[in-house]
Amino acid sequence: MSPRTLLSVALALCLMAGLLWHSTAGLSAFTYETLRQTQAMRQQPPVSDWQLQDDQGNLVRLSDWDDQVLLVSFIFTRCTSVCGALGVRYSQLQRAMEAAGSNRVRLLSVSIEPAHDTPERLAEYRKRFGGTRTSWTIARPADEQILSTLIRETGLRVIPDRFGGFAHSDSLHWIRDGHLVRISAWTDPALEGLITDDG
Questions:
Q1: CB neighbours of 79 closer than 8 A, spacing ≥ 6?
Q2: Tens of pLDDT, residue by residue, the chain (199 residues)
Q3: Residue positions forming the annotated binding site
């Protein structure tokens, strides 16, 4: 192999290694979800003050809960898979918050299908899981532009399926003071500590 060929191969390998390093956040993330989680922890990107309509028809904004940590999940009421698990999890977390007398966390479920998920349907979703409005808000984006914004700002993937629904992330998005500070699994044991920790 000629020196010129060796140099070309070495440069190509360096380029590929650099691309791999960049696309995996320093070889720490090999799926899209783990990449999102890593980037949120490292960069804590800002999110805008999303305007939402809750299950009573009231307009609310993220800034309404600036003194709390928001745990944001994305759901749609026709979902027959992970949205049910998220509803059960939020109901469990809400009971744990009430038992601990904690109000440092606010649970927020946001619909990714606002055209279908009217306030009435959102209220039915809450009722299905026995949640109350004391610490759990269920809402939809006030318009399609806000839906696009929150998808872009969180990096959420929403993929239409063949059955009229969506495939989407079941991760929880931790928002504090207008920044996305963490993305975690809904099964993350750190959630209970978040609820009871006074720090």
A1: 165, 166
A2: 776 765 555 554 444 433 333 344 443 444 778 888 888 789 999 999 999 999 999 999 999 999 999 999 999 998 877 888 899 999 999 999 999 898 899 999 999 999 999 999 999 999 999 989 999 999 999 999 999 999 999 998 877 766 666 666 789 999 999 999 999 988 888 888 888 765 4
A3: 79, 83
What does the block give as tokens for 113? 């299908």
- Contact, 143 vs 150, CB < 8 A? no
Q: What is the largest CA-CA distance in the chain?
A: 73
Q: Please state whether the predicted TM-score (pTM) of the whole model is above 0.85.
A: no
Beta bridge partners, 183, equal 173
The domain spans of the chain are 1-27, 42-196
Determine phi and psi for 21, rounding to 5 degrees.
Answer: -60, -45
CB-CB contact of 160 with 113 (8 Å)? no
Cα–Cα distances in angstroms (integers) from residue 74 to residues 26, 27, 154, in the given order? 28, 28, 11
**Binding site listing for Cu cation:** 79, 83
Q: Are 29 and 38 in contact (CB under 8 A)?
A: yes
Contacts of residue 161, Cβ cutoff 8 Å, sequence gap at least 6: 167
Token digits of residue 86: 């998220």
Q: Would you state the CATH architecture of domain 42-196?
A: 3-Layer(aba) Sandwich (3.40)
